[in-house]
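Re: folding output
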Amino acid sequence: MNLFFMQIDTESELKIFNCEALLETAYRKMLENVVNSVITPEDLYYSKHVPWIQGVVCGNAHITLKYGLILNKEELSSLEIIINQELQKDLNIISVEVSEGYKGQYKVLYVVPKILTGLNHIISELSKFKVIEESLPFKPHITLCYLKNTSNTESIKDNLSHLVNVNLGLDKIILEPN
């Protein structure tokens, strides 16, 4: 697995990162096609202020392993060693879920993958680092799209239930500056 990260200039300077496992391109396209076939444009939510909250986001589909990691240069280097371990690259979707977005402004449609041993090890290691305060309970997930609060989420979930047990492939692990 490859790791990409932003350089930090000094030992003491702290940066905030999200750790993500990017899906292979073919799987991102498949998810995007499936979501676009089920969800109408009228159901999609687009933020005027947050650039990544823009309707269907499967084109950049990834498993968020941990967000808000507060790292200095030394911690980033040790995390690079952990993340660069060889991993199994296949995973399986176990559920389609919806949660409330920031301050109830929208809803988030996502799938939950069965986390494999290699990713469990990385998630366990990530939990040893400081993180920004999480406002909602966190679990690794793949965000599919952002929905308006008026969307019929139960119907959408039912129409996407065939994604359960679908296998997906991972491309690489990345640390994204937040």
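--- second protein (sequence, then structure) ---
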Amino acid sequence: MNWSAHSRAIAAGVVTADPPISDRALQRWCHLGGLASAMILLPFTVRHGLFRDEAATIYAATTSWNQFVALFSHNDAVFAGYYSLARGVAALSPDPLIGLRLLSVLAFGVTVALSSSIGQYVGGAGGALAAGILVATNPMMIHQSMEARPYALVAACLVAAVNLMLRRRAVRAAATLAAAAIVLHVFAALVVGVLAIAGWLSMRRRQRPLPRGSWPAAILLTAVVAALAIVSAPQRTRQVPWIEPPRGWAILDDVLAPAGGLWVPSGGWAWAAVAVDLLIAAGVGIVLQRGHRDRGQYLAVLSWLLVPAAVLTLVSMRTPVFNARYVIGSVPAVGVLAALCVADLPSQIARAGIAVVAGLSGVVGVGALSAPIHQDGFEEAQSYLQATRHDGDVLATPSHFLSTAFDLRAVDMPRYPQADPAGLDEWSLDNNAVPDQAQRVRLVLLNREHARTGHSDLETVLAARGFVREHRQDCVKVIIIDYRRTPQ
């Protein structure tokens, strides 16, 4: 993709993007907008509660090096890059969880600032405003930027790579950032692939040579993707066993996930998000019908927005792997698409559109911030355990991320040695003696673990050691099963 000709048209007054201030001053405003967006999310980094995936991050960031290597060997190779970064952040931060959440918030600010910068490049001041607002209020972008997970960083790396290619044609730097995004999460390769193909087609259509270093960059990215795919593919059944194939309306929901209109919790503000997407779609339709612009540029941005999610959805029909956050790198395309419309629509219509989109997006942003982030039942389970604890209780948490979660939000009872993180089905109870003083083993699991394992082996082991199953308590997504020692 190369919009340099369009930028010259804006400067010459051929296209009505009306930038009233200098490019450098506008860039500063884009950066300030990103900083302001990050500041809004800052208070959420110290919130109580822990999402189970955040617990997995903290486990990887704070566990021993032996367990760290075992984690990648058996279960989490797809997160090797992010967990390695997380260990560095955890070593430097007094509170690893807050430190890693701050990193995500910083990435959110960078994504908003650079999306605005790209919007300014293709649509002037109005394009910068539209792109920044849409990315800053995208529900998926907001939620993923509040968590100690890699997805906000992936989006920041990808939008930075696009910005470098558009403004400086810096192929090597852009390829390095794209490779970093893939290392953080391998499905970023879908977005990188679409952007690379769109750029190649743009050059070919204009009969221009590829920038110097394009082929080495392509070889580097292919090698990174191949290495990660080879290592992580065998781990899919342990990594995402909970994902189901998309069906019916869920297919459309998945494909449109980065646009934000359907990827929202239920509520009145969700309709505002849908309205924003419809307005952008109407703007694109009007522009293309008027024929003011080379349709290839719209096709490139629409591909960036929709194709990665569509490809992953199609793959998931046979091998379920789709999750909306895996294609978070497509979110900035919503803002760029709006910026293109701003540049091509008559100035009065463009200004009115920006005002309406800004108002609706404000509703969406407030709704996204006020919606529950992720509730896994940890706090309810902890309250129940504390309220019903007795002397002689021992807490057992076979999952490494559940063990971490309960260690962070302490429950006042001894811990039973946890299972090997190599997999949920590999129990370590056979290799660890139940403490002699234990009168009751309180097993804490996620619902999906219970459905997968059945715990027949666990119950056999405990029965042989004088324990019988006594009681089961469901706490939202967490199950607590008590095994009491029978009198001798």
